[in-house]
Amino acid sequence: MKEWSRDIGGDILKAALLTWDIDHKTPYELIRIGSNMLFKLKNLGYVVRISKPGVDLDSATKRLEFVRALNQQDFPAIRLVPEHPPLILSNCHVTLWHLETALSQEINWGDFGKLIKDFQEAGQTVQVELPRHDPFEKIRERLDDIEERGLLEREDLAYFRAQHDRLKELYTSYKAVLKTSVIHGDAHVGNVIPTKKGLLLCDFDEVSIGPQEYDLVMSAVGTIRFNYDMKNFQALSSAYGYNILEDPQADILIQIRELTMMSWLCQNKGQSKTIDKEIAHRLNTVKNGDRYALWHPM
């Protein structure tokens, strides 16, 4: 496939609409392009989600089964459109979801903490064999891509690979502070939609079996690195019933997540001077062992 782009996504979208017997001339709008492409079909009240090529079909299928089970329980989450099944087009996984309109950009972090807790509890009742959580898979794939495209200096790439190996070795002996059970795997405020019905959880690409505290890691990193309001994090922690920032044992999870975020950003090197400057800044902070230096959102 050519470079992952709006045009590629648009062609796949039109093929999906034809397959689903939906008018391929239906107006659409690109919402987001990243690991997935999201297109809004506003007139129909749907969102089409297109994965990058080569998704693990077995894991994706199990995760969709899991979401269907949540939908049947009326758990507050985005809903699949059941009459239009998932497709594989151009080696991409294509799914159709009901469009949910956000009331605002404001999230009640206490409600968010409760939503995470409720999700984990609801997940334990779903009889679907989910994959084990592997926080290193994406890091490996991204570092390989970075090396193949020559995006980083050899020294910097070697540093990231050494960090990957160090953290992976430490993680092999990590014992969950809370339970090992169903986790969202990418729980952060960007994956929550505030609606009239309350908060809805979305983006289930990383749902798996892992340490429950991992679902608090993104919020912790946001508080440390991106200057999120500490009161919000405290509200989340209080509602959930556990504060990961007060637990030294779970610090390795924060380090893993930061490396995941760094590997993602480095894949975008060369796209703008702002991105390149931020990569250099973050590299400097981690190489100097500065665990609390602020990063800039990208």
What is the CA–CA distance across the termini?
26 Å
Structurally, the number of domains stands at: 2
CATH architecture assignment of the largest domain = Alpha-Beta Complex
> Residue share in helices?
40-55%
Total helical segments = 9
| Estimated structural class | alpha+beta
- Uncertain spans: none
- CATH fold name of the largest domain: Aminoglycoside 3'-phosphotransferase, Chain: A, domain 2
Average per-residue pLDDT, rounded, comes to 95
Strand count, sense and barrel status of the largest sheet are: 5 strands, antiparallel
CATH homologous superfamily assignment of the largest domain: Aminoglycoside phosphotransferase (APH), C-terminal lobe
Strand order of the largest sheet: 1-2-3-5-4
Helix-strand layout with pairing:
Layout: H1 6-19, E1 29-33, E2 36-41, E3 46-51, H2 57-72, E4 87-89, E5 92-98, H3 109-123, H4 137-149, H5 154-171, E6 180-183, E7 192-195, E8 198-201, E9 208-211, H6 217-225, H7 230-240, H8 251-266, H9 273-287
Antiparallel strand pairs: 1-2, 2-3, 3-5, 4-5, 6-9, 7-8
Detailed description of the structure:
The protein has 298 residues and is an alpha+beta fold. It is built from 9 helices and 9 strands. It has helices at residues 6-19, 57-72, 109-123, 137-149, 154-171, 217-225, 230-240, 251-266, 273-287, and strands at residues 29-33, 36-41, 46-51, 87-89, 92-98, 180-183, 192-195, 198-201, 208-211. The chain has a 5-stranded antiparallel beta sheet, with helices on one face. A two-stranded antiparallel ribbon has the order 6-9. The chain has a two-stranded antiparallel sheet with strand order 7-8. It is globular and about 55 Å long. The two termini are 26 Å apart. The relative contact order is 0.12.
